[in-house]
Amino acid sequence: MHVFTTYDGTELAYHVQGEGEPLICLPGGAMRASRYLGDLGGLHAGRRLIRLDLRGTGDSAVPADEGTYRVDHQVADVEALRLHLGLERMDVLGHSAAGNLALMYAAAHPERVRRLVLVTPTSWAVDVVATREQSLEVVRSRAGREPYDTAIAAYERIVEAAGDPSPEDRRQAMVLAYGRWDEQARAHLAASDHERNQAAAAVFAGPGAFDPPATRAALRRFDGEALVLAGELDGYPTAAVAAELAGLLPHGTADVQRGAAHFPWLDDAPWFAARVERFLSTGT
């Protein structure tokens, strides 16, 4: 574990795996400790993965002002990490909710990002979201056997009901986040209970966090390559949303990992690592 001090005096931790060109890895959750990313399906074989624990998660300190959990404040944390590492430009990977953080960092510091990898990202930062109908179509494609039928019913209750979903529905629906519901997936989900800062997650996308028109305009100045990777079985984001997001970026490419859901490095590690490595090496 390594530690640095960010703009407001908060000590943030990061973890290094592998050797080679650095890849800054931003975890989703929102606000889940970066350990759930693991070695990203073996991507560390050719890259030096630098996994940042966002403020208040993992080994990073809780900030004095918990309002700084809001994602727009955390852009400065990524810049502080770049300065700490002494990197002129860097490759950045954001997963899930951290897709917003990665996009907002690229918008604020376009000259500092060489290549951007967005893995099953949410993209509220640019107001690109799946409709209920799009998400339901994808998850219903898995119907016909358990545990998917129970998970789909829970997912339908979540998207169709007003208000906060029940914890039980949330838990049952999470089966759909995995391409295979096996021992590895069950252990990965179980770990999330103590890896996620729930209070921080409630602030992450709070009022004032996003200005989509301004972020879209700023991203038009981003001249680095970007890969938006969707999982074929992921209801949020869908493959269609990934393609729309890639279309907003001047040099954006979308791809779909077959048989994968929201954590694609768990569903087919060799394919995932090879696809991301190819992009980081060639931009295609």
Task: Describe the protein in words.
With 284 residues, the chain is α/β, with parallel strands linked by helices. Helix 1 packs across helix 2 and helix 3 runs antiparallel to helix 4. The chain is globular, with a radius of gyration of 18 Å. Helices cover 39% and strands 17% of the residues. The protein is built from 11 helices and 8 strands. It has helices at residues 71-85, 98-108, 132-140, 148-160, 167-173, 183-195, 198-204, 212-219, 239-248, 264-267, 269-282, and strands spanning 2-5, 11-17, 21-26, 47-52, 90-95, 113-119, 225-231, 252-257. It has a single domain (2-127, 196-282), classed as Alpha/Beta hydrolase fold, catalytic domain (Rossmann fold).
